[in-house]
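Milestone 3.1: sequence recovery, worked example.
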């Protein structure tokens, strides 16, 4: 194979892993969103039910005050009965007391209803609280997993990027520019391995003549369909990590045959 492609193949391995890591990191906020949504819903439900309980308790207290005031008023009315002179006045006053007693019953019923509602809502609020605790727990766990993943990926990325930089420095500039331009236009890899007569980049069958030329090495060949630089791993040299001694004169021998 073309000896100069060897450092590029190594560079491409790094580039592909870097792209993979970036994609994984990009998905982390989405994954957090997935667990955040039920948490927000549970919080809202908990807030709403607790709020309703408080409102009802206030309502009950207010009715209890009404009842006290009303009872004081009725007691005063009752105490006045003995002061009344005529039978007519007495009867009218009795009637007023009867009306007052009926009103007292209404207030008492309202208080009872309120207490029942409070009890029901307290059960709902308790369930909401329990559900919220469970969801909070799993959110914290998932967040921890994602934080650890983010940390691991960013550490690996920083390491790969410095390797990428070091490796790029060992590739002849023209070849590197070409590699980067194909990489950018294909939005993935610039090098394609020939496997069973097929370009692994575009999955198309390559002419046998071109395959034998690639296998022979020497000139640089590109796929006639996807323009990726072709290589055949059957001839990858044992030394796959070229040092800084990569000779520029050998780079100059590269010819364009496609
Ligand atoms: Zn191709």
């Amino acid at each position: 194979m073309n000896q100069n492609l060897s450092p590029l193949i190594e560079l491409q391995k790094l580039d592909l892993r870097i792209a993979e890591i970036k994609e994984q990191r990009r998905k982390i906020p989405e994954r957090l969103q997935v667990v955040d949504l039920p948490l927000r819903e549970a919080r809202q439900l908990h807030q709403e039910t607790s709020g309703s309980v408080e409102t009802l308790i206030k309502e009950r207290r207010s009715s209890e005050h009404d009842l006290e005031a009303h009872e004081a008023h009725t007691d005063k009315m009752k105490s006045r009965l003995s002061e009344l002179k005529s039978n007519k006045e007495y009867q009218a006053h009795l009637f007023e007391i009867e009306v007052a007693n009926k009103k007292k019953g209404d207030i008492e019923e309202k208080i009872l209803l309120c207490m029942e509602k409070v009890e029901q809502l307290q059960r709902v609020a308790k369930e909401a609280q329990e559900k919220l605790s469970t969801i909070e727990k799993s959110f914290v766990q998932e967040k921890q997993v994602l934080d650890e993943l983010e940390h691991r990926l960013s550490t690996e990325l920083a390491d790969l990027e410095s390797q990428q930089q070091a490796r790029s420095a060992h590739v002849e500039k023209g070849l590197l520019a070409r590699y980067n331009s194909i990489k950018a236009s294909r939005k993935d890899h610039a090098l394609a391995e020939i496997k069973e007569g097929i370009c692994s980049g575009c999955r198309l069958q390559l002419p046998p003549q071109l395959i034998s030329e690639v296998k022979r090495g020497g000139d640089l060949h590109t796929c006639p369909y996807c323009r990726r630089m072709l290589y055949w791993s059957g001839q990858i040299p044992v030394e796959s990590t070229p040092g800084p001694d990569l000779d520029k004169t050998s780079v100059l021998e590269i010819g364009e045959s496609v």
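The radius of gyration is 42 Å. The helical segments are 5-80, 87-168, 173-186, 208-216, 248-252.
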